[in-house]
Amino acid sequence: MKIETFALERWMTRWEMDVEYDIAESGIYPMTTRELLELAPEGDRQALLDGWLDTRLGYSEARGSAALRQELASTYAGVTPEQVLVTTGAIEANYLLFNTLLETGDHVVAVNPAYQQLNSVPKAIGADVSLWRLRPENDYQYDLDELERELLRPETKLIVVNTPHNPTGAMLTDADLDRIYDLAAARGAYVLCDEAYRWLDIPGGAPLARPIRERGPRGISVGTFSKPFGLPGLRTGWIAATEEIVQACWSMRDYITLSPGKLNDALALHALQHRDQITARTRAIVQQNMATANAWFDEWGELVAWTPPQGGLLALMSYRLDIPSSELADRLAANYSVMLAPGAAFGFEHHLRIGVGQRPDTFKTGLNQTARCLTDLMREGVGVRDA
Fold first, then answer.
1. DSSP for residue 201
2. What's the pLDDT tens digit per position in 93-146?
3. What is the pTM of this model?
4. Is residue 183 part of a domain?
5. Residue 101, exposed/middle/buried by CB under 10 A (0-12, 13-18, 19+)?
6. How far apart are CA 127 and CA 108, in angstroms?
7. What CA–CA distances, in Å, run from 10 to 63, 116, 141, 341?
8. Residues 180 and 90 reside in one and the same domain
């Protein structure tokens, strides 16, 4: 299978290990293993640590340990451990699902802009992909009438959505997901919902919708420990689907990564069992960063603007300087040690992707450095576009 270059990942690889102020990060500020350990009651920690240290690093159960699958299944209504497959991040989950469900010529409706995998992998398989675009003039909201009247076909095989949405922070409501599911079921199609930001509601904002998997056999949920738990280094995600789909993905996975890491599985299980404590940590970080961001955008409103995320951690910020987003993002990284992802990677020029999950002091400094960069560019004669 030949596939187009993953523009965002190639750009991020150039800078993410070198910058001091990564405020494009799509997940919450990562936890340490010590912080994970300290989620347990003090009297239980030594035994828990000994268990981790004494774990023999052989192969793990190929579909994920029974304990982890049971714990994941319990977070859904009506899902059994046999309907869960643990994967190497959500990225493997999506890849397995596309390659299991789709064949050349199948029709797919996929949200756009998006994490590029959600568009590029179906195209590489040979699917006919109709892009369901979220537009700034509509505050990046999903237009369900457009989906029904203009995008869906009688033969549509799969609808791909992401809520809360990367990179805009838009959300689908329970009523929205009910309607999408019904539209898919009427055509014999599936709905794949990338729920990487599950449990990441904005403090004071609207509650997140129930997972698509809970709506019936044509709903497929994908989750990850990377974004909401601050554990991207575990490289652990999952699929929640019918047992038939899980078995098919498991069979394909035998040719790719074979099984999760044994220690990763154990750490993920511990995190899931203490997710309420982790969620409280996440909300504290987001609440502080949202206040900082709103104040910063108010102060610099003549040059920048954003639509704050409704959920998750991401938003697109527009800027008025007459400079391409890839050039501005490179300059920020190289000269100001700030990482803001270029909107061009998502098809939105004169935008940058910003994330509100970074450590609050780093986030605040990154925004101040960004303002310094914009001011320096104006002094150098870079023009300002009309609003």
1. B
2. 999 999 999 999 999 999 999 988 999 999 999 999 999 999 988 889 999 999
3. 0.93
4. yes
5. buried
6. 7
7. 30, 12, 28, 11
8. yes
